[in-house]
Design goal:
It is globular, with a radius of gyration of 23 Å. Helices cover 30% and strands 24% of the residues. The protein has a six-stranded mixed beta sheet with strand order 6-5-3-4-7-8, sandwiched between helices. It has a five-stranded mixed beta sheet with strand order 11-12-13-14-15, with helices on both faces. Strands 16, 17, 18, 19 and 20 form a five-stranded antiparallel beta sheet that branches. By secondary structure, it is α/β, with parallel strands linked by helices.
Amino acid sequence: MPPAPSTPSDTSLTALVRDAAFRSPDKLYLSDGSRHLTFGEAWQQIETIAANLQVRGIGHGDRVVIVTENRIESVLLFFATIRAGGIAVILHPQLKPEGLHRVIDQTKPKLGLLEASTASLSAEFGETPVVWAEQASFEALLAAPKSEALPFPGQETDPAFLVFTSGSTGTPRGVILTHAVVRFVSAAIQARLQYQAEDRVAVLLPLSFDYGLYQLFYAAIAGASVFIGRPEMAGPELPRILAAQEISVLPGVPTLFGGLIKMQRYRPVPLPKIRVITNTGDHLPQSYIASLRELFPQARIYPMYGLTEAFRSTYLPPELVATHPESMGRAIPHAEILVCRPDGSLTDDDEPGELVHCGPLVAQGYWNDPIRTAERFRPAPPSSSYDGRAVWSGDTVRRDAEGLLYFVGREDAMIKSAGNRISPTEVEEAAQSVEGVAEAVALGVPDARLGQAVLLLVRIAEGHAGVLDALHDYLKKELPNFMMPVDILVVDQFPRNPNGKIDRVELANNWGSLTEGQPA
């Protein structure tokens, strides 16, 4: 028997899957190429796992940390944690022990989920119980529960999950996403993208990346199917995988699309079913847009811009992609996007200013971090139509006379590479832990494939001329692949400001347009 439909008062995030299971219990929801779960089967397993989590003591507000590759088990535990009233935290599988230790210290989880590829992180959980995602070990959570799952014990304003993103200090920040905000923004985006029940959505982005995770919600609203792939599939076999899985919706970042374009030029595979292409994580180059339009004339292309703190801010309607490919577009429904001067007043047409996101899509803040919450989540400008807090993005944009937005630059030092937000401090701290590295500065430099790549400048202490090989080997071991510098260059001295601090503005001016190892 299909589950009873959600009542109007059931506004939890998991009600999206429950409602889809009631409408279409036999419709395929999740697949990884070998395993397949219908909406009805997925919801039944979510309910079973939720009941077992409650038996294990997971309840209202408890955190469950998930560190795995993209897996169906990760999706089920994510939803089951929320169904039990807890708060889910999905982390990147390449996370290093120190990064996980910081997250665990902040969230104090009651349970962790690991797998073979992340088994080395188990020690960081200390006394916290760990469940293994391998099927044989995961079955304990799928066994018949000792009791039925209790009704959702929280409110729509409670946190549903945390998305961790690095800040300028190098310490991970957990953005708090509530049930109400996630459902609201998912409905707003789905209204624009219009996924359909017949669609097959490819999730090749990490589930720890909010844009990969949100595909699960859009699909549930539409009754569409999701292919849970792995980021490494975005290689030479990507076109064949897309064809075999009959993918019709392809969300990605510029890196994925650049590779796809190259492979389709070299060894084309017919992909007539692709009808929607969405981009986020960084600006999609005009050359990529032109190539995608040529290769997939049947597809609607949606370049998008967003913040983890407000998820999605703008989109460029497909009908404007050909004439305004360099634009970020306009605000999504229910989002108010303002371009402000430092005093909060609105800029004039084409005058650069800070992008400020106002309205009901704004997150609650950062988990257990009131200081940085106050820095980024500040009162909305007087010109806003909404009261309360707004997200002051730190990104500089301009708005033209037609109301279209254009990205100018980043006010802070964050590096955005292939959809990943990288804190320079994290790279610098790792470099400076190598004996002989006196100082280090990480910069983002333009890269046609990644959007930005990491350039590392180092000052070597006297007597350590041969440290570069050791530094490279150490960084390769300690940093995730997406954080690895594209080049490491030695400087004699760093410029400093009147306060004695390294002048990053001057460094960015000198090195930010790096070409073949030489400053611009």
